[in-house]
Amino acid sequence: MKFDVEEVLAEMLDAAAHILSSEWPTLQANVKIAFEEERHALEAIAQARLEGEIDDADLRAHLADEKEVLKVTLLVCKVRGKVTAQKAANAAIKVFSKSIHTALIAL
User: Fold this and answer.
1) pTM here?
2) What is the mean pLDDT of residues 20-42?
């Protein structure tokens, strides 16, 4: 499986939208911008892992950092409550992580 960043970002947005369901219509534009701003960092992390430059432990550390960035960004977007922002960030990063692992299996 080739790692398709466009597809993965769309899946990450879907995961966040599911968690933010009632708030999604008012937050959608800002959340999309936030995810787009993280695109290059996420692409670099995926590429580094898929090319063997980092291992799973490094990947987990990078994803923990990205999860915090997304959580803070979602809070800035006025997501109601820290728990909801954390759940949305968790859901998005889980999608990203699964996509990398699926791509690794296909190598």
Assistant:
1) 0.75
2) 87
